[in-house]
Write a structure and sequence with these properties.
Helix content is 29%, strand content 25%. By secondary structure, the chain is an alpha+beta fold.
Length: 131
């Protein structure tokens, strides 16, 4: 759809090309992010770790305060997000399709923004380097 900019690296000019993600089924660029089952499972694991940690540190009758539980849970989720365990999937907002690839299955022409059904700023973009 367009270029993201060029820069010099070890004497070579590298251009970043922005590609917009669209639905493989209906061709809509109105794509949203959705939580995957993998993400939900890791959130439950994080909650169980915090609960077990609080039970091991305190007595069996002691209840962890909501603020410290939230703090521990947030730190674990942040860590899981940084190492890539909390991945979001994609879903078409027009037809509900969840099978969305990064291939140009509709054979849309490059650099033609007239085919967009949402503003360019609202599309989900991924960038590739062209050497």
């Amino acid at each position: 759809m367009g270029t993201g900019g060029s820069y010099k690296f070890q004497g070579n000019t590298i251009t970043q090309i922005a590609y917009c993600l669209y639905c493989d089924k209906c061709g809509s660029f109105n794509i949203g992010k959705r939580p995957t089952l993998k993400m939900v499972n890791w959130i439950l694991v994080a909650a169980l770790i915090v609960i077990l940690f609080s039970k091991l540190n305190g007595s069996a009758n002691q209840i962890i305060s909501p603020i410290s539980w939230f703090a521990c849970f947030s730190v674990l989720l942040l860590f899981m997000g940084m190492i890539g365990l909390l991945e979001l999937g994609h879903r078409c907002k027009r037809c509900g399709n969840t099978h969305i690839t990064m291939n140009n299955v509709m054979n849309y022409p490059a650099n033609d923004r007239n085919i967009l059904d949402v503003p360019y700023e609202r599309t989900i973009k991924y960038y590739l380097d062209d050497y």
